[in-house]
Fold this protein.
Amino acid sequence: MYSYTEFDDQFLAERNAQFRAQVERRIDGSLTEDEFKPLRLMNGLYLQLHAYMLRVAIPYGTLNSAQMDQLAYIAERWDKGYGHFTTRQNIQYNWPELRDVPDMLDALAEVKLHAIQTSGNTIRNVTADHFAGAAADEVADPRPVAELIRQWSTDHPEFQFLPRKFKVAVTGAEADRAVIKSHDIGLRIVERDGQQGFEVIVGGGLGRTPMIGKVLYDFVTAEDLLPTLEAIVSVYNVLGRRDNKYKARLKITVHENGIEDIRARVDAQYALIRSQFSGVDQQMLARIEADFAAPQFKTAPLAAYESAYTNDPVFRAWADTNLADHRAPGYAIVSISLKAHGATPGDATADQMRVMADLARRYGHDELRISHEQNVILPHVHRSDLPELHAALKAAKLATANIGLISDIIACPGMDYCALATARSIPIAQEIATRFDELKLEHDVGPLKIKISGCINACGHHHVGHIGILGLDRAGVENYQITLGGDGTEDATLGTRTGPGFSADAIIPAIERLVLGYLDLRNDPTETFLQTYRRLGLAPFKAVLYPEAQANAA
């Protein structure tokens, strides 16, 4: 992973000292809340429904064990003993006292972490495929270029006051595990004639007006990547709307002007600025790439793994759902579910964080990743170590075998925490997971992604859920709309709204009818929910979702 330089350390120290002085001025009344707000947002500090919330960046989702241990310490020392991992590969602390935030930032800096640009109308935390550097289908590890983009965008003098927040995601594989088509800029490493470059996608985003990104360039060389990104953001900075925050995102700029017009403007801007990029960025990239060298993979007999897989059905169920193919022989990628049935999706206690840090040290070459699906990944584990690792996860209540299944739900904090939310998300996710655990149908149902948002801002990615749930306020009553057929992969698709929403009491039975209906509609157990929906369309699912409407129509 990236090693901070003396400059990096000094930059963080000065930035934190500056914010400490600003906090002191807020506490003594020298700054009003209105004056303090833009300053705190530049440092990732929000004022939520009940308390302040500090959002900490985990750049491209990569952590080592010392960093995870420090996140645990911060949760215990200054919060309520847990943290919440988000869909943007961040961690949020929901209960800090304002006077403690500077100490929290200093503690983060000790392990090369920060909260810079996790808020505000600027380029946010750059995210990446959570299997980066390990996936068997990877063209190249996307994290070095993600780190280059992070350095380029941090405190960039032109891009601190954009029309709206701006999000970038990078993947190095054909399979899109980073949801790049729902970002302002999505990058995919591709090969052409033996040369590596980037497919550049722009104008994606969810929220109030969801849109799938469009290909701006199908191939940009590594040397041309940063000037191309600078040209894109510069064009957006000038052209993006500032008269209406609901129409300020790049997706609206692309929609209103058309992709051809945007491409022409970017081409023109690129021609103006290209000479300013002398190749220093490529020298920096070479240094960064050295920091991301693969670990020294080991070889060992697989007898212990094979015996456990054959003789232990609990281990086998976990292995079948929570392991993914690794590029190195004998290794696996381990996904640790933060979605135990009835738990809050994405939450981890300080003790659980320490367990995961220790497992990374013992078995995982000291690497962890945070996924946009709010789980934790050990990207490099030899299969011979998996039985011992699984036993340790079970003891920590971290061995839920549900990755990609119905209880592996993405959910935003909703009205339990967020001042913008119009409905609760967490209880709905908990009730769905608990209900299908009671029915013992989860593994029979197979791959199914449910995503829940507590408001139109779509932090729970409901638009790209196979089943998406959007919580809204209808005359003071929580109402939950359902969308079907969304997909956040390389085949990205926005879900289709099914019809009238459901009350909080009715939404769980509605989801149950929907899933049981799918089991009757599928051709065979190998046909997934999404495949069945794409084969049959909305009508048969709508019929099982609204049986009274069907009866009345008859």
The longest strand covers residues 185-192. Residues 303-395 form a domain with the Sulfite Reductase Hemoprotein; domain 2 fold (CATH 3.90.480.20). The chain is about 40% helix and 20% strand.
